[in-house]
Amino acid sequence: MNTLEESINGIVDGLMEDYENGKAIDKMKIFNHPDNEAIIDILSSLRKIIFPGYFKNRSIKVYTVRNTLSMLIEDVIFKLTKQIAIVLGGSGESNAEIMMLAQEKTLAFIKQLHKIREYIETDVQAAYDGDPAAYSKDEIIYSYPGLFAILVNRIAHELFLLNVPIIPRMMTEYAHRETGIDIHPGASIGKYFFIDHGTGIVIGETTEIGNNVKIYQGVTLGALSTRGGQSLKNKKRHPTIEDNVTIYSGASILGGDTVIGKDVVIGGNAFITHTIAEGAKVSVKNQELRFNYDAAKPVERAEVEEEDAWFYII
Fold first, then answer.
1. CA distance 238 to 165
2. Residue 44, exposed/middle/buried by CB under 10 A (0-12, 13-18, 19+)?
3. What does residue 292 show for φ and ψ, rounded to 5 degrees?
4. I need a surface site. Which of 12, 13, 107, 230 has the fewest CB within 10 A?
5. How many angstroms separate the CA atoms of 233 and 217, rounded?
């Protein structure tokens, strides 16, 4: 046996011994864990159902919308029931009872597709109305990362409300990887929600967002502190954003008691930990620009005037 083989065998022996120490990461039940690829396939099928005609499966030759829809729904029911049954498997119930419960939750979710489509239609409209760079709704549906992140959240949120474990978070983390937008499936979001640009946005679990809200990249709707860990579970840790609020890039709004009232505008890079009354405009005061074009000359200073219309520039 050569040196490399001896080294590999030694490493394997050490890891096999370590696997027997009962760590949380040591579970070997390969077929009792949700399948990430299956979850992504489910999202893909749901996207085709929600946007009929936009995201066709080119490998399936079906000549009527009804037949295509039937096949997609059957596919989602089969795959989602299986995945939900897997994540419910630790409940101690018999396999038949688990499968029945999983199917009940799946069918309850499928019945919410009308609601998801109703809400996502308003999100497309909000993006079109709110972005002068959008030339068509088709462009938004095909290419806007913010809309994709919202769509996945709306799907995952319905499963979250049905107390389906793990899977909703797997869905939103997939959207997070794809878009850079991190929305917890527990977040409650109203109609006409628009995310502009989107990268770096974080929206926490207990966030509540009203209708006609618009947020830009780098915004955090977070908790004041998570040092309490599991003791904070099921407590309101994230802010409430009421109707018709605009939040510009880099702003952080923190705390479960923080309420941003209707029609508020939050300027870029603001840091807010307390309630803002309806109709207020919040901006960072006295930002300073420094210029130095010639090292031999002294630095010139100029302050940006705070104006009613100045909140964000791109």
1. 21
2. middle
3. -150, 90
4. 230
5. 27
CA atoms within 13 A on the CB side of 190: 14
Fold of 26-181: serine acetyltransferase, domain 1 (1.10.3130)
Element (H, E) at 189: strand 188-189
Tokens of 306: 């705070």
Closest of 250, 229, 245 to residue 280, by C-alpha: 245
- CA dihedral 116→131→200→277, nearest 10 degrees, is -80
Pinpoint the residues of the chain covered by CATH 1.10.3130.10.
26-181
Residue 55 binned pLDDT confidence (cut-offs 50, 70, 90): confident
Segment holding 266, helix H or strand E: strand 265-266
CATH topology of domain 187-314: UDP N-Acetylglucosamine Acyltransferase; domain 1 (2.160.10)
Task: Specify the pTM.
Answer: 0.84
Q: Report helix, strand or coil for 264.
A: coil
Per-residue confidence band for 290, with pLDDT thresholds at 50, 70 and 90? low
Concatenating the DSSP letter of every residue in 13-80 gives HHHHHHGGG--GGG---GGGS--HHHHHHHHHHHHHHHSTTTS--TT----SHHHHHHHHHHHHHHHH
CA 245 and chain centroid, separation: 19
Tens of pLDDT, residue by residue over 104-153, are 999 999 999 999 999 999 999 999 999 999 999 999 999 999 999 999 99
pLDDT digits (tens, 9 = 90+) for 160-200: 999 999 999 999 999 999 999 999 999 999 999 999 999 99
How does the average pLDDT of the chain come out, rounded? 87
- 53 falls in which pLDDT band (50, 70, 90)? confident
- The answer to whether 253 and 266 have CB atoms below 8 angstroms apart is yes
Tokens of 230: 């599991």
| pLDDT at residue 222 in the model | 95
